[in-house]
Amino acid sequence: MQMTIVGTGNMARGIGSRALAGGHDVAFLGTDRAKAEALAGDLGGSATAADGVAGDVVVLAVPYAAAADILAAHGADLAGKVIVDITNPVDFSTFEPGTLAEGSVAGQPLDVFLAGDDDGAKATVRQIVEDGGLRAVDVGTLARARELEALVYLHMAVQGPLDTGFSSTVKIVS
To answer: What CATH number did the domain enclosing 62 receive?
Structure first.
């Protein structure tokens, strides 16, 4: 599968790493082409820098405040694509990057929680997640995104008190 990841930061690196590990083609699109080229070079494989959004899946791996501008700039190119929005309205200056690039914590594959109203889009994202060695957990409709944002914020907030250095994860164990 071909995907464009909009962003060149830590989450773009982590998602790109997992997608490449799963055998997918990844193009990075950022405000600074040199950063996109450097990230693609670091990750290797089929990773490239992009001039625009293309492929089957587009991941918004940018700060929350930037998402509206990206949608305005690339709206026409997004039609018919599966859009994965990982943005959260939090202050990233107080948080550190996590463990997505590694794909596991304590020998356990990371859980990736999926919420959406389009079953076909969720199936596409599930495939990418599982191809990358992670476990997809379908939490229901897009209305569940609010709870996922709260869960992510709570997880980030406890990193300091637990002194985990952002090397922990939220995992459903049964």
So the answer is: 3.40.50.720
